[in-house]
Design goal:
With 607 residues, this protein is α/β, with parallel strands linked by helices. The chain has helices at 6-9, 22-33, 51-63, 77-84, 101-110, 133-144, 164-167, 180-193, 200-209, 214-227, 234-241, 246-257, 261-273, 278-297, 299-305, 312-320, 323-340, 346-370, 384-409, 435-444, 447-462, 466-472, 492-499, 502-516, 530-540, 571-574, 588-597; strands at residues 40-44, 90-94, 121-126, 150-156, 171-174, 197-198, 231-232, 475-481, 484-489, 522-526. It has four domains: 6-174, Rossmann fold, CATH 3.40.50.300; 180-241, Helicase, Ruva Protein, domain 3 (Orthogonal Bundle), CATH 1.10.8.60; 246-382, Zinc Finger, Delta Prime, domain 3; 436-565 and 584-607, 2-Layer Sandwich (GMP Synthetase, Chain A, domain 3), CATH 3.30.300. Helix 6 (133-144) links the parallel strand 3 (121-126) and strand 4 (150-156). The structure holds zinc ion (ZN). Keywords: ATP-binding, DNA replication, DNA-directed DNA polymerase, Metal-binding, Nucleotide-binding, Nucleotidyltransferase, Transferase, Zinc.
Length: 607
């Protein structure tokens, strides 16, 4: 006999076999025993929480002549036929594959006929939110004039997508996520029945990874079973779920909370090298940090969720870490998690994350450990508002620091520049950019030099330490001359980090010395400010950039440039397309820009 998936074999056949939905099963059994059955039900809830199982049990119970206390007998012909899916009067429709109006029209035609064998005709429409508007309208017509002895059970993971007109005509049940402990007990029960040996820790890992879905839990269990020889080991469970051991997680969180960037990055490295999934790891840290936070307020809850006790490491961390630090960490984790969805290089984001978390640990964790514990169990509750306020204040202090630095560095810097060339960058997000170092490089920059630097850049980064590489991974040279190189950063946070790290600058310059023969001075800029800086330089030096030769055609990519606004500083480079098609004409700024940075990147917009 072919192997049958656990979730099929162990699909509940009675309401009492269902896990974690006691309120719903009691209500449904009660409706059956008191014969108060509705014409239409909506079973809403996350995947794998028992919606279709409940629907089938319900279909059996109302049709079974040996029904007892609202439970089907599972022995009679009707029950058996429904379990096997061979009873014509119980019709299962997957709206995800049958979403046409025709299918529902078909129901409307056939619904008029009385059930052939059973007492009730039952339509189970799974993923009902997938129906088209037309199909919903057809369904609504049927629900408005329900024929006798016909029952609709609509199941969905996304009830908000169902029209209100439908919702108002159904009796709604919301299925809960299944608690990890419930899922744990169900799995150990099944394994005991199957005489499979297992490591309890392994089952806990699977229960947590399934995130409230019983079907997912059993599918993961199936995979773990296929790995081992009739036993479930912790290693296999970790492998199948892509989870990180509790110990490794604890180590990582301890390291970043202690502000030890280097150790944190090393641990991260070993996690990734072991083939762990970056998103899974982020998820694991989030749940670990949440547990720490929760443990401070309600230790019992966490112990229950952990199905027993928590480790000493965990307790120690929870005791000494202020809630504000935890909130700051979780905010950071959530932000990174969002960004990771859109990248093909999640590893890079994890490294950035590690640096940021260690920064939080350094600035908040350490100082606060010396002060009285922030939120002893049962003590005053730290609200998220407090954490937000602290973060906001921290942000303001940082901005002020930057503003002061700017004033110190360039007190009379730009009065000579024409007003139009003044940076339009908003003061609040301007960081100290060293124009005194940037402009000379721009003045002498060549495309050739930039090409050379871009070629050696990956090798240069490889020569750095793990920590340094993590900072530099999102950087790239954007302009180069024999007198220096300008390097842009995707994240202003990393830009700041790099600017204040003399060791890093030394390492980069020494590396360049080895690779290109000169220790070129390196200047950093945040990428979001780079187009503005470059444009300001080019427009301010326009007179020096006049081409000696005849006008050349403007490059592709830049679009036709306009004749009128060339005297208006910034217009040609900033918004070449603004005035619509115009006769092509060489623009000294554009030409010079192409010369410096290549044709394909000249049309970068300023905003
Ligand atoms: Zn029966």
């Amino acid at each position: 006999m072919a192997y049958q998936a656990l979730y099929r074999v162990w699909r509940p056949q009675r309401f009492d076999d269902m896990i974690g939905q006691e309120v719903i099963t009691r209500t449904l059994k009660n409706a059956i025993t008191t014969n108060q059955i509705s014409h239409a039900y909506l079973f809403a809830g996350p995947r794998g929480t028992g919606k279709t199982s409940a629907a089938k049990i319900f279909a059996k119970a109302i049709n079974c002549h040996h029904q007892q206390d609202g439970e089907p007998c599972n022995e009679c012909e009707t029950c058996k036929a429904i379990t096997a899916g061979t009873l014509n009067d119980v019709i299962e429709i997957d709206a995800a594959s049958n979403n046409g109006v025709e299918e529902i029209r078909d129901i409307r035609d056939k619904v008029k006929y009385a059930p052939t064998v059973a007492d009730y005709k039952v339509y189970i429409i799974d993923e009902v939110h997938m129906l088209s508007t037309g199909a919903f309208n057809a369904l609504l017509k049927t629900l408005e004039e329900p024929p006798a002895n016909v029952i609709f059970i609509l199941a969905t993971t996304e009830p908000h997508k169902i029209p209100a007109t439908i919702i108002s005509r159904v009796q709604r049940f919301d299925f809960k996520r299944i608690a990890a402990s419930d899922s744990y007990h169900r799995m150990t029960y099944i394994l005991d029945q199957k005489h499979v040996t297992y490591d309890e820790q392994a089952i806990k890992v699977i229960a947590k990874a399934a995130e409230g879905g019983m079907r997912d839990a059993l599918s993961i269990l199936d995979q773990a079973l296929s790995f081992g020889d009739n036993e479930i080991t912790l290693d296999n469970a970790l492998l199948v779920t892509g989870s990180v051991t509790h110990e490794l997680l604890a180590t990582y969180v301890q390291q970043v909370l202690a502000g030890d960037t280097k150790a944190g990055l090393a641990t991260l490295q070993s996690v990734l090298e072991a083939g762990k999934d970056a998103e899974r790891f982020t998820e694991d840290i989030i749940s670990y940090a949440r547990d720490l936070l929760l443990y401070q307020q309600a230790p019992k809850l966490v112990e229950e969720a952990e199905m027993g006790s928590v480790s000493e490491d965990f307790q120690a961390l929870a005791d000494k870490t202020p809630a504000t630090t935890m909130y700051a960490m979780i905010n950071e984790l959530n932000a990174i998690q969002q960004q990771m969805r859109f990248t093909t290089h999640p590893d890079v984001y994890l490294e950035i994350l590690t640096i940021k978390l260690a920064e939080i640990g350094r600035t908040q964790g350490a100082s606060a450990v010396a002060s009285p514990p922030a939120a002893p169990a049962g003590g005053p509750v730290q609200t998220p508002a407090t954490a937000d306020t602290v973060t906001a204040l921290q942000h303001q202090v940082d901005q002020l620091k930057v503003a002061v630095q700017q004033l110190e560095q360039a007190p009379v810097a730009k009065p000579a520049a024409r007003p139009a060339a003044k940076p339009r960058v908003n003061a609040t997000h301007t960081q100290e950019v060293n124009l005194a170092k940037i402009n000379p490089v721009l003045g002498a920059a060549t495309r050739e030099k930039l090409n050379q630097l871009q070629q050696v850049w990956p090798d240069l980064l490889n020569s750095l330490t793990v920590t340094q590489r993590a900072v530099m991974k999102v950087s790239q040279p954007v302009a180069a001359a024999d007198s220096g190189v300008i390097v842009a950063f995707d994240y202003s946070f990393l830009y700041q980090k790099a600017t204040t790290d003399q060791e890093l600058t030394d390492a980069l310059e020494n590396g360049l010395d080895r690779m290109v023969g000169t220790a070129l001075p390196i200047v950093f800029v945040p990428k979001d400010q780079w187009p503005e800086i470059r444009k300001n330089y080019l427009t301010a030096h326009k007179s020096e950039l006049k081409p000696h030769t005849e006008p050349q055609p403007v490059a592709d990519g830049t679009g036709p440039s306009s004749t009128a606004p060339t005297t208006d500083a910034g217009a040609p480079v900033a918004a070449p397309n603004e005035t619509g098609p115009q006769p092509p004409q060489a623009n000294p700024v554009v030409t010079k820009a192409e010369e410096l940075f290549g044709k394909n990147i000249v049309d970068i917009k300023t905003d």
